[in-house]
Amino acid sequence: MKLLTPLGLLGLLGLLVLLLIYLLKPNYQQKMVSSTYVWKRSLRYRKRKLPISKLRNILLIICQVLILTACAFILAQPFIKKEVPPEITEKAAVIDASAAMRVKGEQETRFERAVERVKVLSEETFKNDGIMTVVMAGAKAETLAFRFRQADAEELFEILDELVANKSCTYGNADIDGAIKLAGEVLIENPYADIVLYTSNTYIDNANIEVVNVSEETEWNAAILDCRAKLEENYYTFSIDVACYGRSERLTVTAEVYGTNNDGDTIQLISEPVYCENGVTQTVVFKPSEKQSEKVKNIFKFDSVFVRLNEVDDDLSEDNIFYLYGGTEETIRVQYYSTKPNTFFANVLMVLRDGMRGRWRLEISEVRKGSPELSGFDFYIFEHEVPSELPKDGLVLLVNPSASPKDSGLTIGKEVSGDFNLAFGEKHEITQYMMPEMMRVSTYRQMEYSEEFKPLLYCGNDPVFVVKNTRASRLAVMSFSLNNADTSMEINFPILITNLFNYFIPSTATVTKVVDGAEEKVPQYVFDVNETVCINTRGTNLSLSLSGEGAVEKDYEFEEIPFEIALSACGTYTIRQTLLSGTVVVSNIYVKMPSDQSNIFRTVDALEGVAAKAPDREEDKDLVVYVAAALIALMFIEWWLQSREHF
């Protein structure tokens, strides 16, 4: 037991006062008187009562002593200090490796500063014979050292030095929550371990995590957050979002447009200085107007746009530039050959041409007389008649073929007549959004095919629409005639042809988005770092390379396509694909730093991801209430003993 106010024990001086009272208390004097019957009876009674009176007096004295002692202890405020098991100093350090940690102050980056502080924390912990855990929050959280002790100090410092030497800080967002969860695993072994996060973010609610902000007040950043090109009335309008963080500045934006129109000239667009208040996004717009030159206001095609901030000396350079691609439509050549042309194809080709505008430029060639071309096109449609040899440089669609295509693995059988509704076969992208049960045909041809084909539509037990997609051949076969179909085909047939086109002639780079409640791969030319990119090809192989310092290149075989990849560095990626015709097509995408990382002084609502929370330490036990209860009990006993004096 310990005392919060030891001077309260001065109240025990009251015991001396009590002793003094008993010393000064007058005693009864014995006097001799003549004996009578009454006195004899009284004496007899007194002798019988005397032992009980002595005991009562002793108890009274004890109660009074205890009452005074209890009062003194109440003044001293006694308590019992909770004994806890001896603790081992243990720290779990989490290093934020997001793009905002690339901000470089006068001498070092935030990331380097964080690593140095983890070194200092490790040294202090090891001096106290403690334990260290280090977790890095990169694109994916990673444990670098788990419960290292003094003997592992050299290895830990080597790991931390390698982080700086390898420039391990990412260009994207950091998995802070995942890193906190990994660090929280030490709480299973030691619930009193401390988790320390080294970051540049400010957290409103940091739970039980110690947050060390490694940013400096003098740091600032000017950023290009986004760039868009929109085709309006056949001419492009360029919109650039810019912002400043850490201070307010006037920014000037320059956009160099390469490969403009048909002459391929380079046009430079320079904005007026725009005032960017700290943390407020401004949009710079380059729009055709009468004040600009003829070339500037008539940009209807471009190869690329290089956007930069002029004369900016901020602390984060990665977001001071921006590249924009996709301003030139690639030409896709389509040939339609039919001995009995129908309105279905005339309408669907017109819909396809309009629907692909901005992505592809379709050149459609119709052959009604003579022989069709067997090379030089990306999409061949042969209706009724089958050429002697199928083209090998593009997608081939056979509609109601009258004969078996040579060396195709497909055999055309007898014709079946009746009244039939179509039904789904294998689930496939080509038949999505269709309602085959509404499609009715009166005749179709039976087919036999190799295992390379996939049956997508049926009439009863007979497949009537099959596809093949291999390195050497891309073939789709529809074994019924549109001339014998009902009007419901007008709704479903355009969907089928559009899906067929998108599947076999895909955009090179797409991202999955939800459109009208369904996931859809949308063409895109700008991606955030670590955003999942779906890369496809229309040819036999594909290579991917990053421009600039540290360029990397990787070749991908056809069997791996389409494939998804998260690109981890900022910059322009060049994609080269070899088509079936042997033509090499080159396209570019730009991977940028996420816009929220440009805000180098971010405020985040709360930290999440802690796997376990250290239990609260038990508080010391206050004894004042118990002493007060004992005081009341003693006072009651003392009163009762006093009341028994004459009984």
Structural account:
The chain is of the alpha+beta class and 647 residues long. Helix 2 runs antiparallel to helix 11 (624-643) and helix 3 packs antiparallel against helix 4 (153-165). The protein starts with a strand and ends with a helix. The mean pLDDT is 84.
Give me the secondary-structure topology.
Layout: E1 2-3, H1 14-24, H2 37-76, E2 78-80, E3 90-96, H3 110-127, E4 131-137, E5 141-148, H4 153-165, H5 176-183, H6 186-189, E6 194-199, E7 202-205, E8 210-213, E9 221-232, E10 235-245, E11 249-251, E12 253-260, E13 265-270, E14 274-276, E15 282-286, H7 294-297, E16 304-309, E17 321-325, E18 330-338, H8 343-355, E19 360-367, E20 379-383, E21 395-399, E22 410-424, E23 440-449, E24 453-459, E25 462-469, E26 474-478, H9 489-504, E27 509-515, E28 518-523, E29 526-528, E30 532-535, E31 539-546, E32 553-557, E33 563-566, E34 571-579, E35 584-592, H10 595-598, E36 603-606, E37 621-622, H11 624-643
Helix pairs in contact: 2-11, 3-4, 8-9
Strand order of the largest sheet: 19-18-20-21-26-25-24-22-23
Mean pLDDT: 84
Number of strands: 37
Largest sheet: 9 strands, mixed
Structural class, judged by helices and strands?
alpha+beta
What is the count of DSSP helices, taking H or I runs of 4+ residues?
11
Helicity, as a percent range:
10-25%
Strand fraction: 35-45%
Query: What integer value in Å does the Rg equal?
Result: 44 Å
> How would you sum up the global shape?
elongated
Low-confidence sequence ranges: none
**C-alpha termini separation:** 41 Å
